[in-house]
Amino acid sequence: MAQDTAAIPTGQLWENPKVYNRRWLIMLTLVSGLIIVILDNTILNVALPSISRQLGASQGQLTGAILSYAVVFGSFQFTAGVLGDRWGRRRVFLTGLLIFGVTSLAASQSKDPTQLIFWRAGMAVGAALITPQTLSILTNVFPPKERGRAIGIWAGCTGASLSLGPVLGGLLLDHFWWGSIFFINVPIVVVTIAATIVLVPESLNPNAGRFDPIGLVLSVVGLGSLIFGLVYGGESRDWSSFLSTGMIVAGLLVLVAFIAVEARLASPSFDVRFFKNPRFSAASMATAFGFFALFGVTFFLTFYFQFVKGLSPLQAGLAALPSGLGQVIFAPRAPKLVARIGPKFTIAGGLTLLAISLGLYTTVNPGDPVWHVFIISFLTGTGLAHVVAPSTESVMSSLPPQNAGAGAAVNNTTRQVSGALGIAVFGTLLQVFYARNIANALEVLPETFRDEARKSIGDTFVAVQRLGVVDPKAAGQAARELFCGAGRACASGQAFVAGVHITSIIACTSALIGAAIVLRYLPRRSAPDAGYLRQQRMSGEAPEATDTAASAASDSVS
Predict the structure, then answer these.
(1) pTM for the full predicted model
(2) How far apart are CA 24 and CA 1, in angstroms?
(3) Angle at 397 between CA 138 and CA 201, to 5 degrees
(4) Rounded mean pLDDT of 56-74?
(5) What pLDDT is stored for residue 234 in this prediction?
(6) What sign has the CA pseudo-torsion 168, 382, 395, 230?
(7) Count of beta carbons in the 10 Å neighbourhood of residue 242
(8) Cα–Cα distance measured from residue 303 to residue 496, given in angstroms and rounded to the nearest whole number
């Protein structure tokens, strides 16, 4: 394969007939690598109770397993994108697959929580190497006229994977041991590596300039500190400690230093001047506000389905499918809407629909039928489909093809950080309002159990279970008072939903702010792609009058 593509200028792989003819097989290969990474972001949550029982993991150790993956994955994505541009995207993609497969196998055989935490961090390194390469290779393989559709399919698969994680996890845990949620990655990785070797061409930036170790170190430290603080604060709800707010502040300061350093370098890892291009910056902001709102609200859906509606983990996972279905259906179709009305109004419309769906959660009550939430969730996925695909295409098409890896890394990191921020902020708000609304009802519990039960609806459930060990009769009475059954109202459900109503209003507002930013700053139409116009002129399909447009496209990020 290297001989087929070695002479192809970077960013024009789609001009090679061999590459072009197998572009959809390349897409399938890249998506298979992406899916296992996205699945692993959500599949662990379903297995936490099983891991706790079978490995004897404490709550702190379970938090460590979550933190090790989230922090390493988020902090290394930018570096991975830059390394792909410099050393070869196919090479880095294969390296990531190998690391992810080996560490997934090791994680599935963990004998204690410490081993699991270590191997999860190793999986995150592999995942970080994989994710940005999928988008950057895709951008270089598909010609501009098909790129929007390809990115739409990529975005739809991303959304579907987020929803499928809990379902697949529930199915595996019903039939196999807890480690099967990691072992399932191994055969997929083996097949994907073989397909990559055969199908995927190599591409890189031939003019990468000098290596920038200081910038890469600053990006890893800054992003790692920021994400650690957000995830730790969201898990512990302790915002007064250095490990939460202190790490967030430290991370922001390091990222400011990163921007200052990069702005002064002749060959930076990432040219911060790209943010002057509104197609890049406004689309990135749209992604940030969309995922902040989405992750913040979908965070509570698992708790709603399991603790308010009484569904099993597998049923709760299946209940998350409508959002993914909306993205699968509409993300590949979003480019057609972009072609008709432009990215500005498509993305703004998607954020508006997302805001409406999030606002509709104010109508949800404990006794409502589950299909009520299904409809809202489907609207959420539909709105997001018209945000992710067009904004990603806008970001990627605004950069020179040789910087596709860095652009993909910025796009993915934006989603990671904004999602972590959404979970942290909305999780804390939900805890505050739940504690306030449940206080009086907790008088049914002995005083020694009330402080623990006040923290969240999950903690209320655990407190009643603990009471059942020492006083089954009192626990039975408390369960009847606090938890729902057969559609009747209950104290915990009412307190939880009251918090949901407040957080949904805030999420709705944040999505509307994102829409306003897009309407104000994102250009109405995308600039033509210089390479595509050049090919059209050479083939006689485009008039020479497009020279000015091609020049403008080339200069749009200079």
Answers:
(1) 0.76
(2) 16
(3) 25
(4) 74
(5) 67
(6) negative
(7) 11
(8) 9
